């Protein structure tokens, strides 16, 4: 599908929805149904990376300072990172 | 003109598919389709056609295999019947959703239970909303012709949808009929090499069958619906071209003595020719009876149906399947829905006939007409009856 602003109309959908740009799945932002978001408390974080390892979406990323954050374009709010974080540095906060 | 030869229709369908330069077929044998599977596999094994014949372990795999092969740009064929079609059901909307021009022959047979191997239309009716173009053959010649035309329709750049050709099991598949095969050179001219919209190839990767959430699903369904509706234009063009090249014409709605008829009957598939004999008998007695034969089930030919019934007083719709707990047979409810908004429309009656291979004879059809004519107060309008049920 050609890159455009906004969502395509039915006339613009390719025949059979063929995607001609390989590796374009990252353009499809799938984090829209999240009810809670993970919030890191870097005072408690020991940079162990267990959140990074356990995130089933692969959306937890390490910043240059060594702390972690989730990419909200893909985070579903499942809470696995918060559950696994043994120093309890991650809180699940209701989405407004 | 080509020579007419006597051949069993199922074998002839495989021969006709063999004339279409297919690249691959995946067919799992099931009664009464088996002779299509067997003969097509013979053609490949004997080196008469240059194609891959994939021996799959089920119909689910057969449909999966032709979907994959069609995605590479190959011309593919499969055939099934009854339980096999039910097993394929999950994949049918995927084939049409991916807009793959697969051609499938269906040797129509009753669906279990109880187990029954004989002919009716209870296998194709549950597939109605799968997004496939659906054609019905009335005799062996039509089964051959439609099978060849199906590739051209399916692969047309404005269609790119799968097509199924319904061929009544036993009543057609196992008959030996005098058949005329089109010349191979003319078939080659009629059916050029497939030009796929996209192909699966490692050198130029694409994604087929990607995931879609609510933000796109509605648009994708709308696009598919429009594609199916628009395919009728191409189907008509292909039938015109066929008539010019091979001298046999095809219409979405065929008629027999319907022009001045007061009372019409509608059939689908092989029952049409028996019903024609009943019409002849009734006409001889002065009854202005006529017949409508529905060839194109999807996309449904609304305009053509409206045009042929508008002057009739009564219309008998025959169904070869049951919509349990519903408004009558599936064809009946479709016809009623098509005519609902018409100011001038006939009184519509429904007989469910020929279930599980039960014979429907010429006197049966005559009796249906007589019964409807006798209903002067139109008491049985909009109701349905299981024809010949013991009670």
Number of helices of chain B: 12
Beta-strand residue fraction of chain B: 15-25%
The H/E string of chain A reads EHEEHE
Number of domains of chain B: 2
Uncertain stretches of chain A: none
Q: Which stretches of chain B of 5+ consecutive residues score pLDDT under 50?
A: none
Q: How many strands, which pairing sense, and closed or not: the largest β-sheet of chain A?
A: 2 strands, antiparallel
CATH class of the domain at 33-94 in chain A: Alpha Beta
What is the correct CATH architecture of the domain at 33-94 in chain A?
2-Layer Sandwich
Your description of this structure?
The complex is a heterodimer of chains A (96) and B (391). Chain A has 96 residues and is of the alpha+beta class. Chain A has a domain at 33-94: Alpha-Beta Plaits, CATH 3.30.70.20. Chain A contains two helices and four strands, in the order βαββαβ. Chain A has a two-stranded antiparallel sheet with strand order 1-4. The mean pLDDT of chain A is 92. By secondary structure, chain B is of the alpha/beta class. Chain B has two domains: 4-246, Thiamin diphosphate (ThDP)-binding fold, Pyr/PP domains (Rossmann fold, 3-Layer(aba) Sandwich), CATH 3.40.50.970; 253-386, Rossmann fold (3-Layer(aba) Sandwich), CATH 3.40.50.920. Chain B is 38% helix and 18% strand. Chain B is built from twelve helices and 15 strands. Chain B has helices spanning 9-18, 34-45, 59-71, 82-88, 92-97, 140-155, 184-190, 214-246, 271-284, 302-309, 330-339, 362-374, and strands spanning 4-8, 24-26, 52-54, 76-80, 103-108, 133-136, 163-168, 176-180, 253-256, 263-267, 289-294, 296-298, 314-319, 347-352, 384-386. The longest helix of chain B has 33 residues, at 214-246. Classes of the chains: A alpha+beta (96), B alpha/beta (391). The interface between A and B is medium-sized, with 17 and 25 residues.
């Amino acid at each position: 599908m050609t890159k455009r602003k906004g969502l395509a109309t039915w006339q613009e959908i390719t025949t059979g929805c063929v995607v001609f740009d390989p590796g374009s799945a990252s353009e499809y932002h799938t984090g829209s149904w999240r009810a809670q978001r993970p919030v890191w408390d870097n005072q408690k974080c020991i940079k162990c990376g267990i959140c990074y390892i356990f995130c089933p979406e692969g959306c937890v990323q390490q910043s240059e300072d060594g702390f972690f954050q989730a990419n909200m374009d893909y985070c579903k709010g499942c809470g696995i990172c918060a559950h696994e974080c043994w120093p309890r540095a991650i809180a699940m906060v209701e989405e407004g | 003109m080509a020579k007419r030869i006597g051949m069993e229709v199922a074998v002839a369908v495989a021969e006709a598919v063999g004339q279409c330069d297919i690249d691959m077929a995946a067919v799992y044998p099931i009664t009464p389709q088996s002779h299509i599977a067997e003969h097509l596999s013979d053609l490949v094994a004997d080196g008469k056609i240059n194609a891959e014949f994939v021996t799959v372990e089920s119909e689910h795999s057969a449909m999966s295999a032709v979907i994959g092969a069609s995605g590479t740009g190959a011309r593919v064929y499969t055939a099934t019947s009854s339980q096999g079609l039910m097993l394929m059901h999950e994949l049918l909307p995927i084939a049409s959703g991916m807009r793959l021009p697969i051609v499938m022959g269906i040797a129509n047979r009753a669906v279990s239970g109880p187990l029954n191997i004989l002919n009716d239309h209870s296998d194709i009716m549950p597939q109605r909303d799968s997004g496939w173009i659906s054609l019905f053959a009335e005799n062996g010649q039509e089964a051959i012709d439609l099978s060849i035309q199906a590739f051209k329709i399916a692969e047309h750049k404005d269609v790119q949808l799968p097509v199924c050709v319904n061929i009544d099991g036993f009543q057609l598949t196992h008959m030996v009929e005098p058949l005329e095969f089109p010349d191979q050179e003319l078939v080659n001219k009629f059916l050029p090499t497939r030009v796929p919209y996209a192909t699966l190839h490692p050198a130029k990767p694409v994604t087929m069958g990607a995931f879609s959430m609510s933000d796109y699903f509605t648009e994708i369904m709308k696009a598919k619906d429009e594609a199916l509706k628009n395919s009728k234009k191409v189907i008509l063009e292909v039938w015109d071209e066929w008539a010019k090249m091979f001298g046999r014409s095809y219409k979405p709605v065929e008629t027999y003595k319907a022009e001045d008829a007061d009372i019409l009957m509608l059939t689908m598939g092989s029952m049409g020719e028996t019903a024609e004999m009943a019409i002849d008998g009734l006409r001889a007695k002065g009854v202005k009876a006529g017949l409508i034969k529905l060839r194109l089930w999807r996309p449904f030919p609304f305009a053509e149906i409206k045009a042929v019934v508008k002057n009739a007083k009564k219309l008998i719709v025959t169904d070869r399947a049951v919509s349990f707990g519903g408004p009558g047979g599936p064809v009946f409810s479709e016809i009623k829905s098509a005519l609902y908004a018409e100011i001038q429309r006939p009184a519509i009656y429904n007989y469910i006939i020929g279930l599980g291979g039960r014979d429907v004879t010429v006197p049966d059809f005559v009796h249906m007409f007589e019964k409807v004519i006798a209903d002067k107060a139109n008491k049985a309008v909009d109701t349905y009856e299981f024809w010949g049920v013991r009670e």
